[in-house]
Amino acid sequence: MNRYSRIAGTGSYLPEKILTNKDLEKTIDTTDEWIRTRTGIERRHIAAPEESSSSLAEHAARRALKAAGATPADVDFIVVGTTTPDLVFPNTGTLLQQRLDIHGCPAFSLETACSGFVYALSVADKYVRLGEAQCALVVGVECLSRFVDWTDRATAVLFGDGAGAVVLTPADEPGVIGTHLHSDGKYQDLLYFPYGVSKGFDTLRNNSMDGLKMHGNEVFKVAVRTLSRLVDETLAKNGVERGEIDWLIPHQANLRIIQSAAEKLGLPMEKVVVTVQDHGNTSAASIPLALDTAVRDGRIHRGQLLLLETFGGGFTWGSALVRY
Ligand code: UT7
Asked: Cα of 220 to ligand 1 centre, how many Å?
């Protein structure tokens, strides 16, 4: 009998503090109207000083486990997509593992920017399919507010903090039908954070860093083109017709990019889960946040066909076709 993975439960978490477009009007040269019409964003959540990616992830993970009818003791595999780890090491997966009081199973994080969750889902799916994991925790989490340049209107209005998680368990029928991952470093200068450990560390040490860099307009154009190709690839590789998709759950970066992907699929916007207005671009957290929102508010039902698609820094991009 074939073995697959299925999403047994979803969870998410947004920090309490909300920063609205109107709040931003007071500190930078922008308007609520510009932000809404260009991006669809209305507000974003900001992690409290004592919070971190692993603490946000813990909330989302506990909610996903509860929804799956599982406990931390059941978890035997943890993978976290994040580009804003608590520390360089231990990795955020291991820090989450400790928070959940689980000891010994593999736990790690991967950094593929906004594609972090889809990459993590793809990895966990393989382990569950191969029989090497029975209860995999897959998380996308970000504290982007920590490295946004709050004086740069071109980026400060876009990003927010949050976490989303799913629990993957084995199943006789798919579940995760297919995942499709891509990356191309030739676009590295269009969207990046300029400091790390082996490069730019002196700037960090001297406390003189600025923030994340993005050539928004160029990113926008490549994103629209690439996501269109990705949708074609995902449908073709899985032998699925456009009309069979029940829900599109896209990366929540910009409402206009989401609309163009929906158009490509011939899906009305009522069949697209849009949460960007409530939390802005939360990078790796955005897809599991949107998924959890639509599961909990009753829009997504068991048995429905979901298309998850993402695009982010690198560039990295990817999709997952999932029977929920
Ligand atoms: O998550 C990973 C992938 N990231 C993305 O997908 C983001 C992709 N890019 C975008 O979403 C859009 O490009 C942005 C929302 C970032 C920008 O929207 P745009 O329609 O591409 O605007 P633009 O950068 O071409 O700027 C248009 C104008 C400029 O003014 P001028 O030169 O026309 O006078 C900007 O200076 O808007 C100005 N502008 C702003 N005005 C008010 C840029 N940022 C702001 C702002 N408030 N916050």
From this structure: 9
Answer whether 76's CB lies under 8 Å from 133's CB: yes
Q: How far is ligand 1, taken at its centre, from the CA of residue 289, in Å?
A: 24
* Other residues' Cβ atoms within 10 Å of the Cβ of residue 270: 8
Of the listed ranges 28-32, 200-204, 215-219, 306-310, the one predicted with least confidence: 200-204
Question: What DSSP assignment string belongs to 41-82?
Answer: --EEEE--TT--HHHHHHHHHHHHHHHHT--GGG--EEEEE-
Helix or strand run (H / E) with residue 320: strand 316-323
Mutate which of 220, 279, 281, 289 for ligand 1? The one with the most ligand atoms within 8 Å of its CB, which is 220
One DSSP character per residue, 151-205 reads T-HHHHTTB-EEEEEEEEEEESS-SEEEEEEEE-GGGGGGEE----SSSSHHHHH
Write out the catalytic residue numbers: 114, 251, 281
Q: How sure is the predictor about 95, in pLDDT bands with cuts at 50, 70 and 90?
A: very high
Going by the DSSP 8-state scheme, the letter that residue 106 receives in this structure is: -
The torsion of the CA quartet 151, 189, 164, 324, rounded to 10 degrees, works out to 140
Which ligand 1 atom sits closest to the C-alpha of 283? Answer: 1
Alpha-carbon distance of 165 to 287, in angstroms, equals: 9
> Given this model, what pLDDT does residue 206 score?
86
**Which residue minimizes the CA distance to atom 23 of ligand 1?**
217
- Give yes or no for residue 204 having a pLDDT over 90: no
Give the Cα separation of 234 and 126 in Å (integer).
17
pLDDT tens digits, one per residue of 206-231: 888 888 999 999 999 999 999 999 99
Distance CA 201, CA 204 (A): 5
CA 49 remoteness from chain centre: 22
**Which ligand 1 atom sits closest to the C-alpha of 154?**
44
Residues framing ligand 1 (Cβ under 6 A): 30, 34, 38-39, 114, 153-154, 157, 216-217, 219-220, 223, 253-254, 257, 281, 311-312
